[in-house]
Amino acid sequence: MATLFATTDTVSAVGEGVTITESGGSTDVTEGGATDTFTVVLDASPSFETVIVFVLGLVDVSVSTGALNFTSTTWNIPQEVTVTAVDDSDVEGSHTDSIILVVFTINEASPWNADAIDPPPLTVNITDNDPATLTVIKTVITDDGGTAVASDWTMDITGTDVSNASFAGSETGVTVTLDAGAYSVSESGGPSGYAASLSADCSGTIAVSESKTCTIENDDIAPELTVIKTVITDDGGTASAGDWTMNVNGPDVSNASFAGSETGVVVTLDAGTYSVSESGGPSGYTMSLSADCSGTIALGESLTCTITNNDIGASLTTSEDGTIGGSVSVVLTGQPSSPVTINVSSGDVGEVSINTASLTFSLSNWFVPQQVGVNGVDDGFLDGNQLVAVTFSVGAGSDSGFLGLADQTV
Questions:
Q1: pTM of the prediction?
Q2: Quick check: 277 and 247 in contact, CB under 8 A?
Q3: CA distances from 135 to 179, 196, 219, 380 (A)
Q4: Which of 9-23, 217-231, 255-269 has the weakest average pLDDT?
Q5: Which residues, 6+ apart, have CB-to-CB distance to 214 below 8 Å?
Q6: CA max distance for the chain
Q7: From CA 238, how far away is CA 332, in angstroms rounded?
Q8: What per-residue confidence (pLDDT) applies to 114?
Q9: Cα 377 → chain centroid
Q10: Cβ distance 343 to 395 under 8 Å?
Q11: Partners of 370 in the β-ladder
Q12: In the predicted structure, residue 20 carries a pLDDT above the cut 50
């Protein structure tokens, strides 16, 4: 028995007080469901007047009676009051309300002093029966050139009796109701190039009248551009990739200027138009750019630009009528330990002739330039200008230190 109020005050040797007993030790009710009861009884008999206990429910509960009458013959008989939750549409979750009890006597002159009786409020625990609510918020971050908005995506909710299972994303959020149980939120549609992240309450379980918020965030993915610098040195060149500077023009480029690299340098930039160029570097090299060295790049896209520099070999112009001819000077750049033979050949003997098929360098003349005469051949055909390679290669049996050298062409 829970005594919410009792007093030991006495007037004219008569005890005064009210005992309130809650069934089960508490008062618990459910909207649209379970009710509960409590009893009220006087602690002492009134002499000859009637004692009235007024019972008042507040906002969220009602009571089965508004007044309890006690007399000198019924004062010790507990009177029961039934408590019912008000079934409203407010989503409140588990909450409480109070019941007020007021004691009043009809005969003010009696020794049973009701003015001294002031029971405290009775607390009622209320379980809400309203559906759960889920608020879905769509956030879009566009700091890398993206232009999408929340409504470009569709929010999809899986659950039981969802009031609105599919709708356009909203930055301010859309609130739906659903039955208690398991649920999940996903998205569909929307542009590519965005990374999605979901908050913890975008899936799980939800209880009756519980409220949760799911936030789905889409962040635009910065494009990546890899710039590779390739240098070809098959005609005597000695340059390396780092001799040139790579320049990237575009929106919000993370690294707009850097030394060339054979392995490549990755930069990020906003989606849009871009181009890659180079500066610096030695002369005597042709430059070629791959297709992705300029154009447009989209969110989340990865492209590779390759700039190739090829050393330009020596050249000589001759004529078929013999009025224009020339020679090529050949010399070793280091002293051999044994003789070195350089073989000379024309790529098309019908167009270009040479005056020697080989040159020999000894330990004593390796540093002396030797000449190879080159002339055009009058072939009698009107075939226009022709490009013919004259190749210089290290012959077999030459000093082993020279055998690995690449052929040179003019």
A1: 0.57
A2: yes
A3: 14, 18, 20, 90
A4: 9-23
A5: 134, 135, 136, 137, 185, 198, 199, 201, 202
A6: 153
A7: 17
A8: 57
A9: 70
A10: yes
A11: 330
A12: yes
Rounded to the nearest integer, the mean pLDDT of the chain is 86
Between CA 325 and CA 386 the distance in angstroms is 14
Question: For the segment 293-339, what is each residue's pLDDT rounded down to a tens digit?
Answer: 999 999 999 999 999 999 887 666 665 555 666 677 888 888 888 99
SS (H, E, C) the chain: CCCCCCCCCEECCEECCEEEEEHHHCEEEECCCCCEEEEEEECCCCCCCCEEEEEEECCCEEECCCEEEECCCCCCCCEEEEEEECCCCCCCCCEEEEEEEEEEECCCCCCCCHHHCCCCCEEEEEECCCCEEEEEEEEEECCCCCCCCHHHEEEEEECCCCCCCEEECCCCCEEEEECCEEEEEEEEECCCCEEEEECHHHEEEECCCCEEEEEEEEEECCCEEEEEEEEECCCCCCCCHHHEEEEEECCCCCCCEEECCCCCEEEECCCEEEEEEEEECCCCEEEEECHHHEEEECCCCEEEEEEEEEECCCCCCCCCCCCCEEEEEECCCCCCCCCEEEEEEECCCCCEEECCCEEEECCCCCCCCEEEEEEECCCCCCCCCCCCCEEEEECCCCCCCCCCCCCEEC
- Starting at the edge strand that comes first in sequence, how are the strands of the sheet with 51-57 ordered? 27-30, 122-127, 95-105, 51-57, 67-70
Amino acid 37: pLDDT = 96
What's the residue count for the chain? Answer: 410
- Higher model confidence: residue 187 or residue 342? 187
Beta bridge partners of 374: 326, 354
For residues 58 and 42, what is the distance between their CA atoms, to the nearest angstrom? 23
Cα 220 to its chain centre, rounded Å, is 8
**What is the model's pLDDT at position 2?**
31
Is 15 within 8 Å of 44 (Cβ atoms)?
Answer: yes
pLDDT by residue (tens digit) across 168-219?
999 999 999 999 899 999 999 999 999 999 999 999 999 888 899 999 999 9
31: tokens are: 């909207």
Whole-number Å distance between alpha carbons of 269 and 223: 6
